[in-house]
Amino acid sequence: MKPAPFGYHAPADVAEATALLSELGDDAKVLAGGQSLVPMMALRLARPEQVVDVNRVAGLGGVRRENGTLVVGATTRHVALERDPVVAAAVPLLARAAPYIGHFQIRNRGTLGGSLAHADAAAELPAVARALDAEFELAGPDGTRRVAAAAFFRTLFTTALEPDELLVAVRFPIWRPRSGFAVAEVARRHGDFALAGAVCGVQVDAGRISRVAIGLIGMGSVPLRAEAVERSLTGSEAAALDLDDVGAQAVAGTDPPSDVHAGTHYRAKVGAALVARALSTALKEADHG
Amino acid sequence: MAEITATQDAGTEMEVALTVNGEARRVRVEPRKTLADTLREDLGLTGTHLGCEHGVCGACTVLLDGAAVRACLVFAVQAEGAEVTTIEGLAADADSLTAVQRAFREHHGLQCGFCTPGFVLSVTAFLRDNPAPGEEEIRDGLSGNLCRCTGYQGIIRAVKAAAEEMGRR
Amino acid sequence: MSTDSLGTEPARTARENPVVGANGDQAGPFGGATAARWVGRRMPRREDARLITGRGRYVDDLNPPGTVHVAFVRSTVARGRIVGLDVDAAREMPGVVAVLTAAEVNSPSHQFWQTMTGPQSVGTPGRVLADTDVRYVGEPIALVVAESRYLAEDAAELVDVDIDVEDPVVGFAAALAEGAPRVHPELADNIAEEVPTADIPGFEERFDTAPHVFTETFDQHRYLCVPMETRGVVARWDPWTRRLELTLSGQGVHEPRLFYSRMLGIPEDAIHVTMGDVGGSFGQKMFPMREEHAVVIASRLIGGRPLKWIEDRAENLIGGGHAREERIEIMVATDDRGVLLAGRADHLEDVGAYPYPGNGSAAGSAAGMFPGPYRWAGPGSVKYTGRAVYTNTCGRCAYRGPWMMETTGREQMMDVVARKLGIDPLEMRRRNVISREELPFTSPSTLVYETISPAETLEQAAELIGYGRFRREQEEARAQGRLLGVGLSLYVEPQFGFGNLSTEAATIRVEPSGKVNVSMGTGSHGQSVETTMAQVVADELGVPIDDVRIVQGDSAATPYGPGTGGSRTGAVAGGAAHAAAALMRERVLGIAAHMLEASPSDVEMVDAVVGVRGVPGGPTVTLAEIAGLAYFDTDALPPGSEPGLEVSRRYKAPLFMFSNACHAVTIEIDRETGKVDILRYVVSEDCGNMINPMVVEGQIAGGVVQGIGGVFYEHMIYDSDGNPTTTTFMDYLVPTAAEVPDLEYGHVVTPSTTPGGHKGLGEGGAIASPAALVNAVRDALAPLGATVNGQSLSPDRILEIIEAAESATADETPS
What we know:
The structure holds 3 protein chains of 3 kinds.
Chain A (H helix, E strand, L loop, with lengths): L6 E4 L3 H11 L3 E4 L5 H6 L7 E4 L9 E4 L2 E5 L4 H6 L1 H6 L1 H6 L6 H4 L4 H7 L5 H8 L3 E6 L2 E6 H4 E3 L2 E2 L6 E8 L6 E8 L6 E12 L2 E10 L6 E2 L1 H7 L9 H9 L12 H22 L4
Parallel strand pairs in A: 1-3, 2-3
Antiparallel strand pairs in A: 4-5, 5-10, 6-7, 6-10, 8-9, 11-12, 12-13, 13-14
Chain B lengths: L5 E3 L5 E7 L2 E7 L5 H8 L18 E4 L2 E4 L12 E3 L13 H8 L9 H14 L5 H8 L10 H16 L1
Parallel strand pairs in B: 2-6
Antiparallel strand pairs in B: 2-3, 4-5, 4-6
Helix pairs in contact in B: 2-5
Chain C lengths: L18 E2 L27 H4 L16 E7 L5 E7 L1 H5 L3 E6 H4 L27 E2 L5 E7 L2 H10 L1 E6 L6 H5 L14 E5 L7 H7 L2 E9 L11 E7 L4 E6 L5 H11 L6 E4 L15 H13 L4 E4 L2 H7 L6 E9 L5 E13 L10 H7 L12 E9 L14 H17 L3 H6 L10 E2 L5 E2 L4 H12 L1 H13 L3 E14 L6 E8 L5 E5 L8 H13 L6 E4 L17 H28 L6 E4 L2 E4 L7 E3 H10 L13 E7 L3 E14 L6 E11 L6 H21 L29 E6 L15 H18 L13 H18 L3
Parallel strand pairs in C: 1-29, 2-13, 11-12, 15-16, 21-22, 28-29
Antiparallel strand pairs in C: 2-6, 3-5, 3-7, 4-6, 8-16, 9-14, 10-11, 10-13, 14-15, 17-18, 19-27, 20-21, 20-26, 23-24, 24-25, 27-28
Helix pairs in contact in C: 11-19, 15-16, 16-17, 18-19
């Protein structure tokens, strides 16, 4: 189980990286943490002719607050999302989702940008980015552009990234303090990709929901957001909610995949229960003042 | 680490300089050669084991700049300038075992021993970052390494014992 | 995870585990006969120092000069004709040494039988590489030898195989269908084995006249050994000495030596097999398989250069040998109290295409063990039939208790019947279990139990898990809509002592320094043989354990043994160690008595010093002094005494040996997600006198967790085209530390009749756990009226079962 041969490139900055990507075209694959790509290469299911390793690209890592958003560099490793107090304070959902990613050895190496660009709908970070409506900063040979999460995730393992583009940072909106956040998921084993899951954020004012975000893990070919449910919840009385009903509505219309670990029916049914659980936890945390 | 720009074609070898168990080493490897294979084949450090080569079993776990990582998911060329610690780097001889190694021995944390180097390195890093872990944290911390012999019973006992011993020092 | 939230008994630490019936020998210097100083102790292992420091030596750690690497080209089709095989591009690739196909490798003169099955055995048609057709996905078609594994895999991709796909035989129904395609066209049908039972007069009447008759079918899915180290071999044919140097990852060195001697038609003497550390096996590596054969033959064809093949994980999962895909239909007759009056079992095994060993069937062993720890109604009250079928899937290999379907089926049947009769499963077992007073007991399958204690382990397990209290807690939980369950599994574990499994030998050499070398035919792959056998020899001989070294894994330096497996080490290898050490002690004491001018019956050795019994502070002589005399001053030896201190004894084991155990487990099922949380898991076992309780508990734990994996996580799935779909560790789910509970152990000690009173137990954990776990799920779902007769029990499957039960209930409810 050895990877096929490839050419290796370790650019030092974003300009060099995008120039390389533009030059190499479809033959190139960006290598970040490598925790998804390298297994595929070992199995020869992925066999890029050229690998552009962005781990040494200056300025791609790290987090900073900027204009009400948390800007997370693409090569920020999962372990930093999990441990950095700045992340926990600004985007608690990101910090809480991170421990669900694989195992600590995976999180030591895996990166936010890698996970999002890989766009596995069963992964946690794409669901968080989608739920919170994060903005993706893509650098290309002609400069950078910003893409909303809804537009970034196109279909199964496919994103808005062009072959010559590099994901450089992701901007997460910072919710006000006293919001509630929660992650609920079911995986076959601890650390496995979720069979189904939900991420939630909620704000409550005077007993009524004033802001809510619900992202679904593993429920479709892309990370989903239960936007219709969010709209119907906004303004409703938090204490009067029928959470089971909310869960059922959140997954209504989804067509979750079926594989050796669970079928479509299971994912839909359990997804609904997990939405209810995540929302219940988030509501408990949210300051109802 | 100075900024570098490295470019190498497929099939040709690259020179990589890294520090392994405190010693400066140089190897010439193809870009596709994993750090695990490089440690085993080019540096003779066969204590790093390959159990799956696709990043699940954890037998190849090493410390890369102090962080426990799967050496099968890192290419050796990526370790340019890095410090790597393998199982061979933990104890100079049988009389200077680390607390983690001693605990594995005293609590029957291994049978066939194949997964053991990966566990020992994972636990070493885990206890460094979580000196007083609870039961659930221990299981979480161990869940990135597979063992097929022990049913994890002795391993969990060993982690508790090592944490206790290290806490006393 | 173990939890006290239910107010159950606190978990016991290993050192507090109850031991019933053990005797703690204590003795001072020269104060008594052989004192047990090492046997029975929780001794840390002597293997560990090298293994925890990365200094073990596994087969992949060998890189003799000139080593070349092997990769296989394998079939991607389950069944079909090979209509084209083009290896030219691969052969021309730089770095490639050779590309070999059936044309070069296969030979009609090859013999394929294992020593255990014998030349007369009805085996599977043998071949090394696929020639004109392919019979399972993963079947090796060609092997590429190159300067590195990377290059070998590159070249393997260049081999062009053209296969005309044919309909494969997948599953029992397809294999048994009228006019089914034959997996092996050389054979008449897909039946690999049939275990018929002679007509038992009056058998049918037992059912006709019984108050109750129940019939149920239990399915088990395919799951695998999955040692953390895959298979591997380094082979070098020396063209000048005409000898094969073979190192492999296996369970012993002697079977490969004999096997390849027969296969290649060369004397045993021309083959030297060594084995270093081995990273687990669980049955998979007991017998060399086709890939090893191919490498050995290729090494001979190439000559001079060492060939190395290390199976990768995908190869291991796809083609390394599979297990456990079985079905059993059980019919039992009982009286109103649940007393078993008669039983009939019909067992079906899927042995794949190329099983190992022989035809892969374990139904014969299962037939013997099916009556288990229960009385039934004596001889003639139980009947067992079995069939094994070939399919176009990976062949079956041995896996820890290959016959375990008898326990998986029987123990589930006990629960099903108990529930139907309104009897608690514990009470049902109490009414049928064989008690100590009934020993020796001849089972309905005519096996004679002499030293088992199933009733005692049943009671101990029930007490340890707090069975009665759990039932009350369960009732309260059920009232809240929670799904709690308890499962029991009671069994008798055999160790077979027939054929080539009947003996083990130990050769002991006391060095002039007094150090003790023990050569054994064992092939340890995690069983702690270097520790346990040293414990036995140190005690029996009377030397410090640090003076004893166990040598194994070298065919030139050790006596024949069939390999470590079949739970035989404690009783059989232990028997040899006891016997050889006793003989050595006699020799040593004879010389010592002469030196001390005492009678041999008056002297004893403690810590390698011989003194006269009852004379503390009297004259002594050390083992080194005795050895010095024996080797270098032979004229000073007592008259008639043989010079030197070298003895060898081969121990012949009884035909059958038995241990027994009871597993008890409590679980809670999350009704919304189908996830199972194991609350507590208790094993009460009787393996006779324990050599090292730490090792005993380690063996149990490993087996139990393999059962947990099997029931809840691991599943090798084939699609209808015969494609395996769970071929990486991302899909074939081995449990982690987060999925297992803290195990609790109870020990009942009934010494066996073998030397030392030890019994084997290596397989039991894996034999009994699946039934206990499925029974717990069945119990948890009982209030819903659910039927749980199959595995694997993934969360998805559990929700399906719950929903099926709920909709059945809804249908029955009049609207």
